[in-house]
Amino acid sequence: AKPITAPDIRAMKNGEKICCMTAFDYPSAMIGDQAGMDLLLVGDSLAMTVLGHEDTLSVTVDEMVHHTRAASRGVERALLVADMPFMSFATVDKALENGGRLISEGRAKAVKLEGGVPVAPQVKALTQAGIPVMAHVGLTPQHIAEFGGFKAQGKSADAVKTLIEDAQAVEEAGAFCVVLEAIPVEAAELITESVTIPTIGIGAGNVTDGQILVYNDVLGFFDRFTPKFVRRYADLGAAAREALQMYCADVRRTTFPGDKNTFYMPDDQLAQVRK
Ligand code: KIV
Ligand code: NA
């Protein structure tokens, strides 16, 4: 299949919905790609779902490069986007240096960063350097200290006006799409109508140009907490646990390994060694 590019995603506005999922390593990226995702994001949510941190703040650029590079080996068609971690784009220079690493070392085709008006200079510099940028507004988890937790945003008229300004600023700066996270559906609709780039929703209702969810939430691999906006399509955590329990039981009662899993010596060699 022909690889999907950032301009391809940008062109998918008011048409076919854009299907996105997170990925964090070779098998998760391969499964997402084979399932037909248009875009795969190596999200910094992997800090929580894969590395076991309390929030997304402590994942490093080195770690994101490592996971992105693994994911890149599993992708043939989907556009691979790498999240820029907390503080890695605090200045334009940092954004260029760290964004560059996610592309050249991580083998991502684009980067994502959180924020609107305040990060427009970073979005512009990255885009001009040849790095396509996916923006992210609404509940931006790198700002939980400021928000006081993982709380839905954009509930007041003023907040929605600010979100529209943020989305327009990143569009103006060159972003090829923008994530809208945990905002009322009415706000998502207004923002989607206010920009010419696609909006990718997570907890933003069914009015955005695309949807994204976290792989571990969708498949039931992460149950520390499940946000309201998640739909769980499988319980692979439970399936994995049951399978491993069966393995343990078989080991303990010596029904594993069985004949089929066992190597045997040729009879003549066995006779010689036993004599
Ligand atoms: O890190 C992440 O998984 C994300 C998406 C859910 C948008 O930023
Ligand atoms: Na993220």
UniProtKB/TrEMBL annotation:
Subcellular location: Cytoplasm
Record bears the keyword Cytoplasm: yes
Names of required cofactors: Mg(2+)
InterPro entries the UniProt entry points to: Pantoate_hydroxy_MeTrfase, Pyrv/PenolPyrv_kinase-like_dom, Pyrv_kinase-like_dom_sf
Primary site of residence: cytoplasm
The record's free-text note on cofactor binding: Binds 1 Mg(2+) ion per subunit.
Active site: E181
Keywords: Cytoplasm, Magnesium, Metal-binding, Pantothenate biosynthesis, Transferase
Record-listed E.C. numbers: 2.1.2.11
Catalytic activities: (6R)-5,10-methylene-5,6,7,8-tetrahydrofolate + 3-methyl-2-oxobutanoate + H2O = 2-dehydropantoate + (6S)-5,6,7,8-tetrahydrofolate
Record flagged with keyword Ion transport: no
Top-level taxonomic group: Bacteria
Stored Gene3D superfamilies: Phosphoenolpyruvate-binding domains
Record: residues binding Mg(2+): D44, D83, E114
Binding site for 3-methyl-2-oxobutanoate: D44, S45, D83, K112
Pathway connected to this protein: Cofactor biosynthesis; (R)-pantothenate biosynthesis; (R)-pantoate from 3-methyl-2-oxobutanoate: step 1/2
Family: Belongs to the PanB family.
Chain's role: Catalyzes the reversible reaction in which hydroxymethyl group from 5,10-methylenetetrahydrofolate is transferred onto alpha-ketoisovalerate to form ketopantoate.
Quaternary assembly: Homodecamer; pentamer of dimers.
This protein's name: 3-methyl-2-oxobutanoate hydroxymethyltransferase
Native source organism of the sequence: Pseudodesulfovibrio portus
Lineage of the species this protein comes from: Bacteria, Pseudomonadati, Thermodesulfobacteriota, Desulfovibrionia, Desulfovibrionales
